[in-house]
Batch of 4 targets.
Target 1
Amino acid sequence: MNNKDKPYWQERQEQKFLFSEKQVNVYYKQLEKSFEQAKKEIQQVVNEFYGKYAKENKVSFAAAQQMLNNEEIIGLKSFIKLAHENMNKYNQELNNASIRARITRYQALEKQIDIILQQLYAIEYQVKGEELLKSVYSDSYYKTWFNVDVYNGFHAEFAQVNAKTVEELINYPFNGANFSSRIWRQKDYMLQQLNDSITSMLIQGKDPRTLSKDFANKFNTRKYEAYRLLHTEGAFIAEQGTLEAYKQDGVEKYEILSTLDTKTSDICRDKDGKIYDVDKAVTGENYPPFHQFCRTTTIPYYDDMERDKRVARTDEGKNYKVPSDMKYNKWYDEYIKENPDALLSEKKWKNRFTDKKQYKNYKAVFGKDMPNNLDDFQNMKYNDIEKYNSLKTNYRKLNYYNKVISNESIITADLKEISKNTATELVGLDYRLKSKESFLRKVNFDSKNSSNLQIIDETLNKTNDIIRYTYQADYKEIISKYNNINVSLNEKGYKQTKLKNTWTVKSNPYKGINCNYKSSKGQNFEIQFHTPESFELKNGKLHELYEKWRVISDKSSDEAVNLSKQMERLSSKLKPPINIESVR
């Protein structure tokens, strides 16, 4: 058979590439399950650690630093022995899992997590991953050889895959590091990330169930990195199999074949149709893959090759034919450049990773009010600018609100403890959080309903009362209590950033001490200090009059002036705290 035409090669080489990609995807589905299993096992050992050493629903970091007793060391050795048995036939590095005579509880927990990760990365990822790459290489090599022979006529001799060559390619530091090094680098980073989360849990005295979401996010990130590595290494190995078949079967030149659709990278667009000598092929320079997730492949080039048509794809994945000598850039100018729908599809594809992350973040904040899927979100983002800008500004506000709320429980626990230690009543706790509606109303008012993100950020940074508390004491004691509470707050790492004492301002009908504080994590919140009388007035008649006064645009009107006088009369009856002048 002597079909010397380009479509023959395009069809067969694309089929070969797609089959290699399918092999990677099938293996990755199994690897995903292994990642999920490892995540469950790690969560289990953390829960067991917590159950064993928790006191009053809490494990202190100091308790975690205590040494294991003999019985606990025996239990850890049994865990390591079982892992050795599972890993033994793979000859992987578990030798560093042996334990010293003296080891802390926390170090033992780290060791267990490390062993689970070693089994995941060594057996499920590296060993089985290398088996996959060998299969991809062989398949690419033999299929290319077969296609060349169908094209030129079959040879009497048929070279077998050289196992040593495949091993060398797997160990080749393609793109800076080899397959094994990248895997273990991922594993070490994962271990560090998990340990950091566990350390924070212990220091803050949290329940390990709070780590579930954090663990899920970290494992999802590592799973994506695994997929990216497998896809890139798989493409490299597949193209190396093709290149070796070219060499063995006497192909002297090859042509770069990029996919004619809007998903093709700028690098591969420029490479399309270029012809190179087989013996001068250099991966990443003149031979694919040229980048991560590269879909470009090659076809043999013959001087007498007949040229008729090549295949292009619509954004819906349908094929159509264009002239064989049409290179990517010419195809783009003719079919895409003046086509708004195609340009939109191209933009959506190029931005798919950042848009997917953005969609996930927005979905977490807006829930069912978000578009149903990523495609609908992208359509809105790129077609309805006004709606997208509104969504973006509201996300900025609500995301800020949610982050503030997430810090509330730790602050509340500290303030309750200070309340107990200083014998000062903490009142109005049910109202310690400003409602979402009240927060949005305030931010919109303060920012004058601006959609400028810089103005919104400035407004948010000045909003300190989303979390607010009130300490209450008799007028004879409130100032001494205030001083004691400030000392306690400082000891816990809180810093006072603002103080407003309106008891000394006669023109202000509101009477109280309002302070802003910042936690060690940078969270701003407000504490008010009141006498029982000032607190009752603030929440009662004074609040009622103030709400009427607030909505009057002309503060010099008779109505506004009359309301001001009523508020001043009410507050003038309050008994000022002793030594109030010292608070400044």
Note: Residues 6-53 form the longest helix (48 residues).
Target 2
Amino acid sequence: MKRIISTIICISAAIIVCFSQNVPYERIYLSTDRSFYAAGETVYCSAFCLNENNGFSSFSSVAYVELYSSKGMAASAKIALQDGRGAGSIAIPSDLPTGNYRLSAYTAVAKNIPGFDFADGGCIVSVYNTTSVKKADEVLFTDDIVPAAAKEFGGLSIYGKDGIYSIMSPYSDAYVSVSVFKDEGLVNYNGSSIYSFLNSTPSYSSYTGFAIPEYDGEIIRATVSGEDGKPLSSLSNTDIYIGCPGNNEDLYAARLKEDGKATFYTSNIYGDKDMAVMLLEKAGQWDVSFASPFVGLSSADIPALQLSVKSKGAIERLGVASQVSKAFERDTIFTKMPVRRLPFLGSSHASYRLDDYTRLRSMREVFTEILKDVNMRSFGEVKRVFIRCEDNFNQIPSYRSTPSLVIIDGVPLLDHELLMDYDPLLFESIDVYPYEYSFGNTNYAGVLSLNTYKKDISGLNLGKETKIVSFKGVSYPLAFSNAGFPGNYPSLRQTLYWMPLAYLEAGKAFCPDFIVPERPGCYIIKVEGLTADYKPLYKEFKITVE
């Protein structure tokens, strides 16, 4: 059977839709675990991506999040979307001055809409830097602060007894985020709500620009430059690969244009990665850079943060809690929520765990004694790996005239001869995929995938045609709780529980699993989201510890 896996995702329909003026209008509402943070903390987000009819949009698969002030963007992140819902996080810089900042999210579709309101659906985040006296311009000093009262709507019910709390949507199923946090009385601005978001009417009349909608995932744009920093035009029509160590799914191909640019259509790459970039032709001295997908927002329309002497104690507690929780990260149980991946390799293959065999001293011996259907032989002036592959008619497997693709820890090895110089003790397992693959513009007769123990290509030479660069992918969707640890364990984390993609069945109780610490104060259960028929929901429940 011939397996053809193409890494260039079919986007023709999306492009046609885009430029025929029929792209759905997308806007995003962000719900966060709380609205006040110490500098250096992480903001956890739940995204609701809606279309022009206020229904969930299944068009885009990635959202871009920016934290910004009147001086520009302070931090950024990417969130994967699936059927209009997504979750992720954005790290607040530890040196960010005290002040209010706006947090907004958008998809690539917004870049084609003139006058798009990027602040629509965003929220105000208050940041307190307890290690610096620097303050943003939008800071006011006052004698007293009156916390803003939250407006509740949608008919949600929250009950609590003997440390067990339940949330119920009595009339309709609902998609919500649930957070539990300690209230320090620092919330002094009542920002946008999901109610006002749904009741605002988006206005648009035309589409301009050439931002391609990201239907399957983030579109990565790279530029290959020469020693002088100018784009390499000599490599026009050359294939270029990108791959992330430790994951065979993060492997993509593109073709360089005359201006040295290449476009990779991905299904989203998760986490901050060391990405390997490979040229299929020798280029001498070269470098690669990635274009930023962020707009780079700024706004003067941000309310001033109110500071009071009476808030000093609360701000100090917030700072201490931030520092202690970093030192005792185990007071929180993190759970990675399911993500959508489009695998590059199929599931049918031969796998060899090398510890099950006598450990050999050279890769040449491994090929001879273990990998019976894999061979290294001449291909023109160089040597290449060849795999005995099956054909379309299930006849006897045979060697093809085209070489195989060799992958180490998810990163292609273009110079196969280097493989013979590696110490086989570095490798934990070897997988052989005996089928024909189409990768980019090149056909390969099978794939040889080698996996080291650490899955990080450490100590391996990938050749001069490979560069390792840092890449910021979409953030992992995380849920967490402080439950499951002894009562004497330090628990100063401000957010006790976070479930960004909760689903409430009508009339059935949803019980968040968390433990209220024995620290005196007020704790709040916050639930925010939409019913199945797109009605807004918001509810807060206070827990007082004497």
Note: The chain has two domains: 12-21+28-208+295-339+478-545, 350-459.
Target 3
Amino acid sequence: MNGRSVVVGIVALGVLGLAILVWWMRTHPEPLPIASLTPAPSMTGLATQPAKKPNIVLISIDAVRPDHLSCYGYAKPTSPNIDRVAAAGVLFQQCRSQAPWTLPSHMSLFTSMLPTDNGVDNLNKVLAPELTTLAQVLRDEGYETAAIVNNGQMRAHWGFDRGFNSWREFEADTPPGACDQLTDRAMEWLKAPSKNGEPYFLFLHYYDAHDPYKSPPAWREKFHTTLDERGARDLAFANRTPEHNITDPAALENLKSAYDAGIAWMDHELGRLFETLPPDTLIVIFSDHGECFEEHGWTLHGATLDEPDIRTALIVRPPASSNVKPARIETPVMLMDAAPTVLALAGVRSHPQFQGVDLSPAWRGGKIAPRLIPSETKAVLEGRYLLGVTAGGVKAVYSLFDGRFELRKLPDEDRDASASDHAAEALFAPLRQWVRGERFWTFRAVGKGDHEMVLHSPDSPLAMFIPAGLDEERDNLEVSPDGRTITWHVYPGAPGTPGAKRKMLLVQTANPDAAIEVDYKHDGERGLGEVHMGDAAAHPGALPVKLDTTLAPSDPLILAPFDESRPGLYIKRHADPRHAARASRVAPMDDETLRQLRSLGYIQ
């Protein structure tokens, strides 16, 4: 069984729902078998062919949590124009993203694959050439395809331009990247003659509701916020982790109001766009992730799989000629379903790669089979590696760095109910199989003093590196321009003493079996006896030491926090021989991409 079949199976589990999972776990000692994706019969095959292929406008409203939209019940009038589209179409009440940050969430939507499966789960990785996007399918079906984005992480660099006849990206932190300019360009493109009269697919990405919550003064005044962009970003970033909270309720409300003003300005510009679209246009509006405002101590997004982070808006307004009655759908769905749904409404067969399903049966009198809804995050800034599945009113989350499984009851998620709920083991089993499909190295520094590690991958660029417990004021992590060398400088402190922290670095190479070279110094001195390799804690014969697949693998499933007390560097290679290795595609970022990521706070 390979890693992909494990994760695909998580998506497809449960035609009979959660009850069958619980029954299986009670009656079978072995883990639940993971099957290939098999769509429910009502969703198999070619959708009903429309009389004419509709024009399609797909709109991403980045970082908008649905409970801050009026059509989802928000008290403030943030979204009158989106509300009108929702009132004429189908609104999904319980949609969840596959990742709580922009790059993997959007790539998951366009490929209808989990980030783990399409490989774009980290800033270093780009889409492999053999994978197909929604835009490619539509272009091959005769659509004229175009995209206009104020990018953030929506750059051609990662493969988002694949399948688009026209791709235009504008920097989100410059005036040409603002939502009013984006709308002007979209309207200009719509007025231009379509190539040979073909139907069109237009993708628009609006970044304005994303921090720093950009909006003109008039919109900030309307929503009673005194924060400008700099003030909002400084307040949010300084308090983004549970260790640093916004304790003043007025300051928190001020930040939320700045966010609302950004949403409202963007909605106003979308209203201009909607007025130009013919009634027979298929409009799909989605948010790629949400935003946290001190829920469970977190601000901004990307670090958790909590509902404020992964619950998203999804609104489908079919062409007027389809005579679809407005509806609100309570069935849990996910952003991976958007691409198959768009294709079905265009009369196009879904691609065999796609893991999502066509949602149109939900408003046509049919049903969508119960499924586990997966989400994941591998967050570098916050040092988090989380995998999760949601089923009905419960959510299971595995935190790799903590070695912890939790079962949370929705919607509050305030406590771990795994000890008392019979559904826990049924949901934990697929998470175990999921993580065992991963391959990575871990490096952990223990003890007081200065720990310095230099890691070099001579034959393969680094695909991912996530530091856990990094102290931004004392510790340091530097990556070479070619992406092959990491210098990791940390001060863990003596175990058990005040201020001591676990310091851990997770690393993946693009070639999962590539060798890496490691040098290590403690307080400036090399000490072979302080380097502990593998489960056997063997010492190297010399430093630097070359590490490869001859080091016996440790289980990728970490079941307890790291608690070694002996000082030194602990190295493990995590791999499960039952799962095939999955290579990553890595491409170096150009200077402009790096500048944009730094200016938006994604990298230091």
Note: The mean pLDDT is 89.
Target 4
Amino acid sequence: MNTTYIDIIAEVKLKSPSHGSFKIPNLKKLIISYEDGGANMISVITDKERFGGSLDLLKKVRELTSLPILRKDFLSTKKDMDETLEAGATCVLVIARDHTHNKTLELTKYALSIGLEVLVELHNKKDFSLINKLPKEAKIGINNRDLVTLKTDSNFAISFLDKIPDDRYIVAESGFSKPEELATYSKKINAALIGSSLLTSSNPAKLLSQLKKTALAKELTFARNQQRISYFGEYGGQFIPELLIKPLQEVEFAFNKFKNDKAFINKLNVLLDTYAGRPTPLYKAENLSRELKFNLYLKREDLLHGGAHKTNNTLGQGLLADAMGKKELIAETGAGQHGVAVAMIGALLKKKVKIFMGARDIERQHLNVQRMKLYGAEVVSVTSGSKTLKDAINEALRYYSANSKNTFYIFGTAAGPHPFPTIVRHFQSIIGTESREQILNETKQLPTIVCACVGGGSNAIGIFSAFINDETVKLIGVEAAGGASLTNGTPAILHGSRSYCLQDSNGSISESQSISAGLDYPGVGPEHSKLKDIKRVIYTTATDAQALYAFKKLSKDEGIIPALESSHALAYVLSLKGKLPRTATVIVNLSGRGDKDLTTVEKYI
């Protein structure tokens, strides 16, 4: 016998036409009380005119909880759905009464296609003719509130339940303040949405708990209480639509299985050696060392096949995709190096490859686009938003949501939802492992400083990983001054993970700006966010001008053309001239080569 109690969707709203304003002196305390009472989802009303809400309110709630979030508003466009997903909601309300049937279907299908869950709210007999046309994934809501008189009847929805097929997830909305009112719905619905009674209760947790234990669910529920899944301190997590939960669970299972599998490890190591060209050398820059008056070493990831550190990760994830039987690889890319690396591995493994890249980045990284196409990849130009890396990730996640059965998403940086930050760190840790061994063989001691550029943070976490426990080694992460999430940002949810992000006063994610496409990202990986908070890594910035100077300096003084990304790290190290003892040893992770950036750089020379 099914003994699962119904899900409770606990609502946050600042006012309502029927009640007036609600007093919420401490939003964090309210959310905690909802969690303590057993809420399965939080509903946030963002309508400003009638309910005093906003997307900013939703984002604040998102920062306070890992529970799924329903956005309630009078939404009517695909852009509304895009904004809902980007704000951190996992489910969206579509009110049938506000649209024609065709429009309701269009909005529902679009929201599902980008990875949102959808609650379609029905109000009258005419609305119910829609049910058989709606995708089965859509949840059905019945509002007990009369939208004309604003009065509620807690039994209103009962009369319509027999019109809904048994395989649909049903939510009864409004009008519940006492356990006996909810008891009549036992075994007839999956969830109840409760707002005003909780917001006016002196003990919301107690009331919620009492209500929750009143009625059994019609069948096993779909909403889930998102536990603290793979957090780095207060950062990370898996803030994703329901459609992505199973695919990412499958990826995590496969990763945990194969990362310790001897045959898998051997195959990866052989390819890293014979195909990628590992180990990469640790080169002492003699000319610059003499000028700077300390010992400067460059970890030459620019010499890796493909021209950047990205190959370490794409080989590992590509083999993982192969082991899982996936036929298509997809990826996002900013500077293009990750896209090149995925296209390269796709050719090696005979996989179909689709690369999502911002239109602005396509223009400034034309050489890498040509390389991707030469390897046989399809390059999808993303024209939304700032037309850069952030928007490319958005489009890649949408595509993955709809095509995960046969597709593997090779995430390029140590950010995004779990398990991506952990997987990328694992495959990039070889940079740090080699560097540590090489510097000890060369100097018989650990380095004074290890420095790397930070965008999403994969090359930096790769080299830092081997030195984090060495307290004598100073770790420096250098961001682009126009995209400095760690330096100038605050915690927020972006691309399924909580980390430091650039955002405006309303809590909206701000656009970043950098001459370097790979650092032109308004967020950062969650482990970097933790390392900032515990002060294990010092994060600073370099301007476009400083990076350009370092780019030209290394080219002329050592005959090595660095990527503009790596040039930011080098710029910081050049500023240390005369500030360190002659015996000091500094390692800069030269994460990529700079021929891809020549078109950009020549505009400034």
Note: The longest strand covers residues 352-358.
